[in-house]
Amino acid sequence: MKKIIFSIAIIGLAITLFVLLKGQKPESKRKAKPPVIKTFNIITVKEQSRSIEIKAHGKIQSLTRIQLKSEVQGRLLKSGFKLRAGQNFSPGQLIFQVDSRQAQLALEMTRAKLLTSLSDFIPELRSQSPDAVSKWEEYFKVLQAPETIKASTSKLPKLPTMQESREQMLFHRMGISTLHFTLEQQKLQVDKHITRAPSDGTIVTSQVTSGNIVTPGQILGLFISTSQHEMQVEIPLSSVNQVQVGKNVKIQLEGHDQFISGKMTRISQSVDPSTQNVPAVVSIPYSKNNPKILDSRFGTAIISSKSIQKVFALPVEAMFHGNKVLVMADSTLTARVAKVKIQTKDSVYISTEGFKDGEEVEKGSKHKLALCMNEYSLGNITGPVQGTACWQPPWTKRINSEIEKNHKQTKNDQ
After folding, report:
1. Which of 61, 66, 138, 225 is most deeply packed, by most CB within 10 A?
2. Is residue 16 over pLDDT 80?
């Protein structure tokens, strides 16, 4: 019995020693997970003054675009007809002519009546006012010349000035005033049968050929000037306050390396509802040094803005929510409202108001989703992100899934 009790005591003591020795065994060290190092790009705030070049794309058009219409009725004459698409003109060159024989005959008849009246008026005037005869004889001589009414560029002689009452009474009694103004009206009607180029230009479209009968108001074609052009551009709404009328503009034609000079002529006071840009017009004066400018050709206008004071530059992707940036301060990223002075395609220029020289601003976009979480981890920098949380519309499932994925990744990195 004593042996049994002794054996049990020995076994209990062995178990106790085993447990004590096991408890004193040093635990194996767990391998620590290496810290995840993340990097991001920053820009240090430094106040500066900048003059920005604003690029605006647009289409160049002729400054003068004239719809050619007939003012009279008649047949288009074959002689001198050049109303064909692609035909170029110099100022004053004949474009087309309508048969004017009937109008010319009416003009000749009125002139004959006026000359007959003057033949009676001048002898009687000589007996009443001899001093006034010479000016009327000169008027008669000019009116009698055939080229006075046949040449489209000629003008009828003006009526002499009458000072004496006897002269005026005789003038009206002979009906000279009525015949003179009738003659002027018919001369204008004859001149409408001929259409000449108002400037250097070309025909874009032609809708008739020689021999066609035309009527008053009928559109015959489109004439455009080739000496003066303008470019219609759209300026971003954020940049329009930095653009001034009268400023010089550099224009680069599409597919051409050479620049041509222009000037900002007009800036609209309304916004294009479809693009939210502001329409503007750049005039392009004629210059022999300019490359050939074709109508409806595209180009890029490079507009120098006003000098912008107290700004610093950021990439466009550094902005979120339209007017916020990420600022690093005391190991914490903070969302801060930024006042955009001007924006180009790649950059935004922020007012230094609310910022200090030397502050660090995040210039990338890969950390923006962190603002939609409660916590932002960046290597050994962990802390709450202060500012406005993301507003998530119910239909943005894709954005929500990206946020959830980013959140899980952040938890795993921790």
Report:
1. 225
2. no
Question: Are the C-beta atoms of 103 and 193 separated by less than 8 Å?
Answer: yes
In this predicted structure, the answer to whether residue 272 has a pLDDT above a threshold of 60 is yes
Please tell me whether residue 298 adopts helix, strand or coil conformation.
strand
CA distance 149 to 184: 10
**Cβ-proximal residues to 22 (8 Å cutoff; 6+ apart), any chain:** none
Burial class (CB in 10 A: 0-12, 13-18, 19+), 203: buried
205-228 pLDDT, tens digit per residue, is 999 988 899 999 999 999 998 888
Most confident option among 77-86, 169-178, 250-259: 169-178
User: Any idea what DSSP says for residue 73?
Assistant: -
Q: Helix 101-128 crosses helix 165-173 at what angle (to 10 degrees)?
A: 140
Instruction: Kindly state the greatest CA–CA separation across the chain.
Output: 186
What pLDDT, in 10s, does the model give residues 96-120?
999 999 999 999 999 999 999 999 9
C-beta of residue 77 within 8 angstroms of C-beta of residue 213: no
DSSP 98: B
What's the pTM value of the predicted model, to 2 decimals? 0.59
* pLDDT tens, residue by residue, 376-407: 333 333 333 333 333 333 333 344 455 455 55
pLDDT of residue 395: 32
Give the residue among 256, 222, 172, 203 at the shortest CA–CA distance from 82. 203
Handedness of CA 367, 373, 374, 379 (dihedral sign): negative
How many C-beta atoms lie closer than 10 Å to residue 328's C-beta?
16
Q: Are 76 and 208 in contact (CB under 8 A)?
A: yes
CA distance linking residue 48 with residue 352, whole number of Å: 9
Query: What is the rounded CA–CA span in Å between residue 340 and residue 347?
Result: 10
Q: Which of 48-52, 250-254, 265-269 has the lowest mean pLDDT?
A: 48-52
Q: Please report, to the nearest 10 degrees, the dihedral formed by the alpha carbons of residues 101, 104, 110, 115 taken in order.
A: -120
Strand order in the sheet with 42-44: 42-44, 360-362, 324-329, 332-337
For 232, counting Cβ atoms within 10 Å of its Cβ (0-12 exposed, 13-18 middle, 19+ buried), the class is: middle
